[in-house]
Design brief:
This protein folds into three domains: 45 residues, lambda repressor-like DNA-binding domains (434 Repressor (Amino-terminal Domain), Orthogonal Bundle); 131 residues, Response regulator (Rossmann fold, 3-Layer(aba) Sandwich); 129 residues, Rossmann fold. A six-stranded parallel β-sheet has the order 2-1-3-4-5-11, with helices on both faces. The protein contains twelve helices and twelve strands. It is an alpha/beta fold and 334 residues long. Helices cover 45% and strands 17% of the residues. The longest helix is centred in the C-terminal third of the chain and has 17 residues. The radius of gyration is 22 Å and the shape is elongated.
Amino acid sequence: MATMQDVAKKARVSVTTVSRVLNGDPRVNAATRARVEHWITTMGYQPNLMARSLRRQTSRVVGLVVDTLKNPFTAELSQGLAAHLDAAGYQLILADTQRQASRGPDMVQMLAQRGVDGILYAAGWEDGPETLAVACGLLAKSGVPTVMVGNYLRTVPSVFVDHRQGTRDAVAYLHQLGHQYLVFVSGAQDTETSRLRQQGFLQAAAEWPQVSATIYPSRGSLAGAAAIVHDILTHAPQTTAIVAASDYLAAGILSGLFDHACRVPQDMSVIGFDNVQMSQFLCPALTTMDADIPQLATLACEHLALLLQEPAQPPPPSPLIPRLVVRHSVGPPR
């Protein structure tokens, strides 16, 4: 079995550098990190801490990594996962990256150090998910199976929402009603979810030459979404429909429109994404793309259960296609 010294020798670095890479130390430059991670994977090195965890009895504890519990989607997903795990006799440890996508691999390592039996990863990541993939690969080899929840990572078992298709279908619905001037209010820019939903919006808009599509970043906050309404009404007054990257942001947009005496949907249509419980109680009730949070939680726990039983046989990726839920926040263009 390879040792840390063997990895250091192959990568032409010190043992300290290998340790820093394993712990996600930002002081290691990108080229060195990539070289060390290559040899860690190639040689199948398993950190001692993980090996000790493997030798212990099962803990009946599962770790969950999330972006932030402020988002209703994350809160509802966490509740669904916790309910399934509780029914199966497992407890849940929550690790919050606080919307710092680069902290994801650190959270994974921290949960492994706690001796969890498995990890559900429901947070975002930055443009290059390689560091996260390496961390999850190490855990899988060490008997700590990991399942991606909400997004797809090629090298890790994933239960995910087809974010692109969701926003494509939202634009198609608005186009069918006659809307031509559309705005997409994006979420946090460093997460995979926001990027994919924005890509789907732009791809769909490009299919119809008469559709004008504009992006407004909100930085993922309610206040940011509400404030962006002023910019939309000032700089893009022809806009007749706003596609929000989430129901959470849609709530902020509705508030901003109310502050500007803009009627929904008579003056402006708004469509969200996720179909969280609060969306039906907004005023007006929010038309949205349903990410099927209950099914997402069920499939994620089923995948983890399969991995716990047969670690060498990871289940195939499971995509969920969002469906349109029509309520009262969308109408024909003014």
